[in-house]
Amino acid sequence: MLKVQEIRELIKLIDQSSIDEFTYESNGTSVTMKKGQDPIAVQPKEPSTQPIVKEVETDKQKEKQAPVPQDETETQEDSTPVAKDAAGDQEIVSPMVGTFYAASSPESDPYVKVGSRVENDTIVCIVEAMKLFNEIEAEVTGEIVEVLVQDGELVEYGQPLFRVKTK
Questions:
Q1: Which of 80, 97, 103, 112 has the fewest CB atoms in 10 Å of its CB?
Q2: pLDDT at 54 over 70
Q3: From CA 23, how far away is CA 66, in angstroms rounded?
C-alpha cells in the first residue's frame, strides 16, 4: 500500500507533467489519477466485504475551491520559488518533494556552501524525485549565508533550502 507521502509526491509530479492519466498497481491496490476529472479513488483490486475508497483532492481542485493570491517574490509559475525573509535575506526553497543532494555525486564538492556567491542561473543543489535528478537554480543573486538542510535529507515542496543575503 502506498503511503500518504508517496501519493502526495505522485500527485505533485503528475500535476507538473503533461501526463493526463496515471495508473499504479501494487499488492492488490490500484491508484488511478486523471487531470481535470473527479477526485481520485483508491480501491482494492479484489472485491472484499467492505471496499475501501479514499478520495484525494489534487492541488488544481483545491485552487478551484479557494483561489490563493500569487506570492510577489516568485518570478514564474514553474521557476524555483524564492521567499523573502524578515531580515531582507531571501530563501531558496524546494520546488518539489524529493531528496536533497548538495553535490552531483558523493565524491564531488557541493555546488555551493556558506560564503558562495550565486547568480540567478547558478545551480545550488539537486532534488531527486522518483529517480529523476532535478538541478535547482538559485533564481536570486547574492551570497549563501546558511545551508538549511543536510545532504540526503527528504525535503518538502516550499521548504527553505538555503538563505541568501542580497545586496
A1: 103
A2: no
A3: 28
**Average pLDDT score over the chain:** 75
> At 112, is the secondary structure helix, strand, or coil?
coil
**Beta pairing class for 21-26 and 29-34:** antiparallel
Q: Does residue 72 surpass a pLDDT of 50?
A: no
Residues 6+ apart with CB under 8 A from 84: 73, 90, 91
* pLDDT mean over 16-39: 71
Q: What is the dihedral of CA 15, 19, 24, 30, to 10 degrees?
A: 80
CATH 2.40.50.100 fits 82-165, yes or no: yes
What residue ranges do the domains of the chain occupy? 4-65, 82-165
Q: In what order do the strands lie in the sheet with 21-26?
A: 21-26, 29-34, 40-44, 54-56
Distance in angstroms between the alpha carbons of the first and the last residue of the chain = 49
Q: Which three cell numbers stand for residue 71?
A: 506570492
| Run of H or E residues at 105 | none
Grid cell locating 104: 552531483
Average of per-residue pLDDT across 42-64 = 50
